[in-house]
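Minutes, project check-in
Item: structure for the 236-residue chain
Input as provided by the requester:
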Amino acid sequence: VSNAQEQVDVYGDLPTLCQSNHLITVGNSTRFDNYAGGGYSDISVDLFAPGSNIFTTAAYTSTNILLNQVYKEGFSGSSFSAPMVTAAIGIMHTYACERLLDSIKQNPAKGNLILRKLLLDGVDPINSLEGKCATGGRLNIQKALKMMDLYCQGEVGINSSEALRFVEIYPNPTEDQLYLVSSDPVLNIECIDVNGRIVVMELQNGILDCSNLAQGIYFLKVITEKGEYNLRFVKS
């Protein structure tokens, strides 16, 4: 996510706000498990990972080596947090059991969603990150592997309907109409603007009429038979 200390749902950020069930968005935490600043959202940011004072090969320049400054300073930002999560997913692939590997091979989309869920279920809850991301936690690769082991042993069940459950809206941004697609029957919707005011919207045949909305950012709460989803859209 952005390194600017802002609520990304309000100020915007790409690709953080892209609508995808396969996207994992990462914020920057410190070595002491504190919020390091940067973009945050309890809807659009999934988890945090260490990204402060990180040493990289970028420090190995001829000048730094001659001045013996290779290890004196690290690098910070969510650009260093995201590779931590990428590495975690890579490690999970490496240690995946045959059951999971078969799912990945036969249905890559389902495999992605399973790995994503196991990774996010394995975070360490951190008080300082509560309200800053959807999980309220920091990456823990060991716990993610443990969750994967439990899944492989059949102790944690993720059936296809759970793994592929989704609610999506498009196009986003929109001018007149917003299409809502849900894997489960929709029971109710609630639209709220950035000031916390409820905006009346009706869902008819999977279409939401946005023509009367003022330009800006809105939050859509969708309640289905299987759960509740919080989405964000922009009226352009």
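Outcome recorded: The chain is about 30% helix and 25% strand.
No further action items on this chain.
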